[in-house]
């Protein structure tokens, strides 16, 4: 009998919704250790086929992914700084990139490589498969980004996009910031499941459903941690006011059609 194949080690810090989602797709390819202070970590790791471990064990793996809220990146990076071996690779999976890239570069030793990433999908939008989904890579330090890109593309079947942290955040302020702003608004309205629906309405409710289970931390990160989000919000609210103004003008001029 041939000896079992030894898998490379990988640590994930954070066993929230996205950390668990990511672990399910990575556990076939790595000896995966999951670190999180929550009390039920053993049960979570067991269901995923991973090992429950400590922050030290996740750092010692050599490849460590931070699946924590953007607001916690600085704290976790400082906690990892003295635990990571020379030559380690650290990645994050947050929805913004300028702030995490800066915090990781400031906190981690020069001997540690850094690649910031943003999977442009999640547990709801990619519940069926991640094949063909997009992921953005932002190289920060070292020359490991090409290897990460090959793994994401060749092994996981993802479409890889490379960008600077600033270019990422500038685009995602609209792509994600505006869509989540609309979705949060419609969730607050509590749209009904009417009988007489159009295709457009059904698609809108489906889009809102993709973010319905997102955490408050994620929404705040998208809207408050992206330096370009205020500009996108202003553009959105300006457009809403313009449309509202057109309708109000038409109401006061009932004989004229709205432009």
UniProtKB/TrEMBL annotation:
<dbReference type="InterPro" id="IPR050812">
    <property type="entry name" value="Preph/Arog_dehydrog"/>
</dbReference>
<dbReference type="InterPro" id="IPR003099">
    <property type="entry name" value="Prephen_DH"/>
</dbReference>
<dbReference type="InterPro" id="IPR036291">
    <property type="entry name" value="NAD(P)-bd_dom_sf"/>
</dbReference>
<dbReference type="GO" id="GO:0008977">
    <property type="term" value="F:prephenate dehydrogenase (NAD+) activity"/>
</dbReference>
<dbReference type="Pfam" id="PF02153">
    <property type="entry name" value="PDH_N"/>
</dbReference>
<dbReference type="GO" id="GO:0006571">
    <property type="term" value="P:tyrosine biosynthetic process"/>
</dbReference>
<protein>
    <submittedName>
        <fullName>Prephenate dehydrogenase</fullName>
    </submittedName>
</protein>
<keyword id="KW-0560">Oxidoreductase</keyword>
<feature type="domain" description="Prephenate/arogenate dehydrogenase">
    <location>
        <begin position="8"/>
        <end position="259"/>
    </location>
</feature>
<dbReference type="InterPro" id="IPR008927">
    <property type="entry name" value="6-PGluconate_DH-like_C_sf"/>
</dbReference>
<dbReference type="InterPro" id="IPR046826">
    <property type="entry name" value="PDH_N"/>
</dbReference>
<dbReference type="GO" id="GO:0070403">
    <property type="term" value="F:NAD+ binding"/>
</dbReference>
<dbReference type="GO" id="GO:0004665">
    <property type="term" value="F:prephenate dehydrogenase (NADP+) activity"/>
</dbReference>
């Amino acid at each position: 009998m041939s000896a079992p194949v030894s898998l490379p080690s990988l640590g994930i810090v954070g066993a929230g919704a996205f950390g668990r989602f990511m672990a399910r797709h990575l556990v076939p390819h790595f000896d995966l250790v999951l670190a999180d202070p929550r009390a039920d970590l053993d049960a979570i790791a067991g269901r995923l086929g991973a090992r429950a471990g400590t922050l030290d064990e996740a750092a010692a793996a050599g490849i460590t992914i931070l699946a924590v809220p953007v607001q916690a990146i600085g704290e976790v990076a400082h906690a990892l700084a003295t635990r990571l071996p020379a030559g380690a690779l650290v990645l994050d999976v947050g929805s913004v990139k300028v702030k995490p890239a800066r915090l990781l570069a400031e906190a981690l030793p020069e001997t540690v490589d850094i690649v910031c990433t943003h999977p442009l999908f999640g547990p709801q939008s990619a519940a069926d498969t991640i094949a063909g989904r997009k992921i953005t890579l932002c190289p920060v330090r070292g020359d490991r980004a090409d290897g990460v890109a090959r793994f994401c593309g060749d092994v996981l079947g993802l479409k890889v996009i490379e960008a600077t942290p600033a270019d990422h955040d500038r685009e995602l302020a609209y792509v994600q910031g505006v869509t989540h702003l609309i979705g949060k608004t419609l969730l607050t309205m509590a749209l009904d499941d009417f009988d007489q629906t159009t295709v457009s309405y059904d698609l809108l409710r489906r889009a809102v459903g993709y973010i319905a289970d997102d955490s408050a931390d994620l929404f705040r990160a998208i809207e408050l941690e992206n330096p370009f989000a205020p500009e996108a919000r202003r553009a959105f609210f300006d457009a809403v006011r313009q449309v509202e103004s057109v309708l109000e003008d038409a109401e006061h001029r009932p004989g004229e059609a709205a432009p």
